[in-house]
Request: fold
Amino acid sequence: MSTTTPPTSITPTPGSRFASTRLLGTALGPFLGLLLVFALFSFADSARSRSLNKEASFASMASAQKILRDASQVGVAALGMTMIIIAGGIDLSAGSAIALSATVTAWFFRADYSTTVAIMAGLSTGCVCGFVNGSLISLLRVVPFIITLGTMTVYLGLGMVLSNDTPIRAFGKAPDWILNLQTPYPIPEWIQVSTGVWLMAGLAIVVGFLLKFTVFGRHIFAIGSNEATARLCGVNVTFVRIAVYAVAGFFVGVAGLYQFAILAGEGDPKAGTGKELEVIAAVVIGGGSLNGGRGSVLGTLSGACIMAVILHGCVTLDIRTSYQKVIVGVIIIVAVTLDQIRQRRLAA
Amino acid sequence: MQGISKRFGATVALEDVSLDVRPGEVLALIGENGAGKSTLMKILSGAYRPDAGHMQLADEQYAPHDPQAARAAGVAMIYQELNLAPDLSVEDNIMLGQETTRYGLVQRSQQRTRVLEALELLGHPELRLGTPVSELSVAARQLVEIARALVMDARLIVFDEPTSSLTRADVEHLFDVIRKLKASGIGIVYISHFLEEVRELCNRYTVLRDGRSVGSGDLVGTSEDEIVALMVGRNMEELFPSVAHEPGEVLLSVTELSGRQTPHDVSLDVRRGEILGIAGLVGAGRTELLRCLFGLDPVQSGRVRIATFEPKATPSSRIESGLGLVSEDRKGEGLAQVRSIADNLTLSRLTPYAKFGFLNLGRRREAVREWMSRLQIKARSPEQMVTELSGGNQQKVAIARVLHQNADVLLLDEPTRGIDVGTKAEIYRLMGEAAANGKAIVFVSSYFTELLAVCDSIAVMARGRLRTVRPADEWTEESLLQAAIGLETVSTTVTT
Reply:
């Protein structure tokens, strides 16, 4: 202890360097990870192609189109999941709800309702599912994990009731532009990637804006970061939470529309099983914290793309797709571990 | 506040308490732990509603039904545990719940001027608005919280022991800030049990004891002894029952022990039949020292010897060689809250009741019953869950465990925190008896009065270093506090 006045700890450490590393970690980190994974597969593919004397195909526009198409369904649903996870929640029912929305859409098409009605029905199904999740969590005061574990089964069951246990086929009833949402090659060709990818990009911008520039967005972060404080400061926690789940439900509905398109006009209530884990994985790989308070749109989309890159890379390299699951699992653990090490270093 | 009363079940927490604060003055609210200070402040801030009495703010009736209403009326609390969202930036934390908006969009440029005004008033315009709060020091976080109170036009700000985790320099800064608030006409309630702080900062005082206001007046012209007499309100022998004990040979010997961050280079000896007090502020590294001793935290260097052994640095081998730890955190790690008294009491030594791994539950129940009556643990049966007990009885279960474990060295970390005065006296008596039975006791506390009354010798810990072991009667509360906040010169290092 020196006798001179010690410097006060109120003055923060010179901060600009700090700010940039932080940015790197939260949003750009997963994005750089995506580029790295893509580069690795491109390298492996070109090396292998050279030895087999054929043309390398991974680093091409065609595979980028496929990767983005594959990532777009999980990506859209993960936009909503990002909000939920930032607010400190989780939604295990997302997969079932995606399939239920697709089933409802198919039911309306099969019954010859207009396109508008069928789409609205699908989207509102997603919203209602989310709204129910949010309301149950708020009103019953049971943790989101349990509530959505329950509704996961409920939504699956409702879908099967609606479809009489067999997928609802509405072939030839939906307009082409819906079915083309998930085509691997864009229609028309000049738009470069399929319409589903463009829609995802548009919605991503909306969500990013919502999180960053609106009061609603600030309150989502506040609730996830410290709910007691948010309540003390006059944030209507119940309302915000229900709204977050309902808005996320809208994205589930959109993903349901994609699902309907993937099956070329069929609604299968069982098709979403396990999808919620992919959606959550995208958010977590993208830097979202299951403790709430952290997550970003760019990170989440990068997370979704990383998984699609690995899948596509495995196909290109003739690696059995089963290995893709192993790799994705390892990536999840590595991503979260890296993130925590970074957090600890910042805290120290 | 007039005639406030509050009861919880059969316990009367507050009875007919009155206090008043004027604009531009600092009122000190003084009282021991459990005197009812925090209950009173929870009523003021709308977290509880009083059973009787009424409150007035300025000239209006004031009856907040929740903390938000209290905030809206202009009453803000700065708690010990700060209420901030760690992932949000300084600006977002300050404006949380009162963002300047247009069409739901945050109007950053406009709200930034309000935030800067508030920080300017506090004398710290240099805080970066974009920094996430998790990267700030404790002192800076406190500023953020005070700024939040300013932004919402608080008329009354309550500080609940705000200096307990600050360094001396930061305390000075905080006092400057509070003086600025006072000068701007805000009424302030300052809760503390450091009388020196109170004298430096406050105009008037109100003393609470056992849920009653027992005295108030101007600090000028009131001596410290008068205030202490009001706070304690009973004679020393009742409060601190003494049991004769005689220090014997050295039992626990620690040489230059260092942990990963704290403690730093700690050496000490504890004898059989000795109660060694370790004083210090929160965050001085006392808990970490005990955890290192017990093998819970990694040890960087140094040696721990118990009698003639040097056990491995794991809790199980430390327990085997006779160490027993009562954690400061009863809820988190001290006790398994949803298990029975019997489970908790016998967890660290089940061998007497086990044969080939099977437990003789009947025998165990009998033994536990005996311990419960020895320590006067009030419960329906040994099978009652710990979480249903009062804090005092829970603490007795925790102490019973280390006694049952036959530990020779008891490491007690804040064993009297958050329990009532009567139970405290019982715990002091238990400690005295244990010492008389030849146990060595290390007693960590932030409450200097009890250390002075109970211990044979006291060491002070500050910033991870243990300094100045002296016989208890060579210390006073003032000298302990000075040593704890680091005013003492460095020359008096540890003597063992």
